[in-house]
Amino acid sequence: MNKRAFHATVEARWGGVALALALGCGEEPVAGPCPAENQAPLRNGPGAARPFECVVVGATTSGGAAEWAAVDALPSPRVFVSSRAAAGGDGSRERPFDSLAAGAAALAATGGALVVARGQYPLAATLSLPPGTALIGAGASATTIAAPHGRAAVEFISGRGEVRSLTVRFAEGAAVDDDVGIAARSGVTLTLDDVRVELAATGVGATGATVTATRLTALRSAFAGVRLDGGSRGVFSRLWVHHGTGYGVRASGSVVHLSDSLITCNGITGLWVRGAPPAMSGAASCAGDLSVPSGDTMCWRRVAFDENKPQGVDVAVCREGEGGSCVGSAGRIAVEASLLSVRRTGQRGSGGGDGISVGPYTRLRLDADVSGAAARGLATLVADNKRAGLLVAGPEAVVTVHGARIANNFGPGVYLQAAARAEELNDTVVSGNIGLGVGATPSSSLGAVLRNQFLGTTVGALVPGGGVTFGDGLAISQRTGLTLMANEFNDNQRYAAFMTQVETATITGNMGDRNRYGLAAYDSRVDPRVGNSVGAREAAPAVSPPTVTDGMLMR
């Protein structure tokens, strides 16, 4: 039976949800589960009638025939610009300016609203807007700023700013580093709504600034759809970053909050987070309105990462050393993620391909509020990635996973190495992965492993092109601290659970059938056959096979 047929059998047998939520990264979109390209299949979570729903993301793709945006709620003074205006206008609605530069100059001393009519607006230089200015178009599909290469298109240097209802598009051709669609400098507080940026090096870039964006699209960015540097803080809802050759979202020493968003088809990782972010105040919480996040927590809620390379999500919240290495903890900052969908992460050459990669001194909690067997497999989805579903590597790299479905990855479902730790792995379906459902090297550890299903792990090598092969629902070498209770192990092609050097552990109430070998512990003081009922086709070998080791999967 080939891998695809085997996965189908396992999913049908154990009631798995359909994983084929195809979007496609070609020039022409592949038909997916949603009726429109700008709709994201976002997870609904336990208790919902359907596992996902189609949510419109990004800037609007069509609009009305209005020449101008509604102006009643805009700040004063209001200056109007139209591409069809005659020369010599005064900036009024009746006699608008004919260029954006003229409109910006009229607001230089006061700020206000720069109201731009439908049409195309070529720039010869950066449109630098004074503090307190709102740049308002007639719709993202109606008003377009045409930017030349070699400079930022729209820039805010200080104070507050706003951009709404327009597109910034660079000319076709190779983007250069300075091609930033909308730039926010140190100290700026910027609000974006219904904005699209196309063909930039960086769609939206912030250095030491605060950006709050709703319905933002970044298309075909060469370096990053969104770039946050130098202590920036970004809050993004209904973000759509797609078909870039660089990063989807890149945050260096910055905080990024995401909700109801789609990040897909990017060439250098969907979401990349590095460095020590600025301190945050208040009680840690990701509940409620993410536009006012609080506490020492980054929040990612209902975000789909699809077909990015070489990692779907790559996060290491740490103090950076030379060459970008992690040299210590960044403090109490944690990442709270819920209802993610991380799928079909590809590889660049032979490296990467992991759905979620968690690095040193980083704490990630996946659906920490989900609990109970009824919620099993209905929270975060990590599936069909070219290597591991969840790779956790390095000292103080700590994860908590509840209610996830980690399925059909071309490597381990979960892999812990280099002193990493999973404090809890509960109520999760781990199915159809290659080599290992869950593996932890001798330097790493698992805490509570409760009420999970380990299903249909296929035999395979962790190192491409050869090496030691595994096919185990669970493989671990850990002396103390393991609690393995009430799990199901079925259809694993080698061991249900392969353990070595276990001195003390609580292993009870586990069940299952149709594994080649059942629960086996080598060089251990515990006998996992006692108090458990895990069926096997054969007796386990008397001598231990090779165990998992650090470095089998390079981060």
Written description of the protein model:
The chain is built from two helices and 48 strands. The model is unreliable at 1-22 and 27-31 (pLDDT under 50). The longest helix has 11 residues, at 3-13. It is mostly beta strands and 555 residues long. Helices cover 3% and strands 44% of the residues. The strands form five sheets. The chain has a 27-stranded parallel beta sheet that branches. Strands 6-9-11-13-15-18-20-22-27-30-33-36-41-44-47 form a 15-stranded parallel beta sheet. It has two domains: 1-14 and 257-276 and 293-555; 58-237, no CATH class.
Which terms summarize this structure?
elongated; mainly beta; 555 residues; 15-stranded parallel beta sheet; 48 strands
Tell me the number of strands: 48
Please give the largest β-sheet: 27 strands, parallel
End-to-end gap: 31 Å
Into which percentage range does the β-strand content fall? Answer: 35-45%
Question: How many helical stretches?
Answer: 2
**Which class do the helix and strand fractions yield?**
mainly beta
Ranges with pLDDT <50 over ≥5 residues?
1-22, 27-31
The radius of gyration over CA amounts to 26 Å
Overall body shape: elongated
State the share of residues found in helices, binned by percent.
under 10%
Please indicate the count of domains: 2
Average pLDDT reading? 90
Produce a short descriptive summary.
This protein is mainly β.
List the helices and strands and how they pair.
Blueprint (H helix, E strand, L loop, with lengths): L2 H11 L25 E5 L8 E5 L21 E4 L18 H7 L5 E5 L2 E4 L4 E3 L3 E4 L6 E5 L6 E3 L3 E11 L9 E5 L4 E10 L3 E6 L2 E10 L4 E6 L3 E5 L2 E3 L4 E6 L2 E10 L6 E4 L22 E10 L4 E6 L1 E3 L5 E4 L4 E5 L2 E3 L10 E5 L4 E4 L14 E3 L6 E4 L4 E5 L2 E3 L6 E4 L3 E6 L2 E3 L4 E5 L4 E6 L2 E3 L4 E4 L2 E5 L1 E6 L4 E4 L2 E3 L4 E6 L4 E4 L2 E5 L1 E6 L10 E4 L19
Parallel strand pairs: 3-4, 4-7, 5-8, 6-9, 7-10, 8-10, 9-11, 10-12, 11-13, 12-14, 13-15, 14-16, 14-17, 15-18, 16-19, 17-19, 18-20, 19-21, 20-22, 21-25, 21-26, 22-27, 25-28, 26-29, 27-30, 28-31, 29-32, 30-33, 31-34, 32-35, 33-36, 34-37, 35-38, 36-41, 37-42, 38-43, 41-44, 42-45, 43-46, 44-47, ...
Antiparallel strand pairs: 1-2, 23-24, 39-40
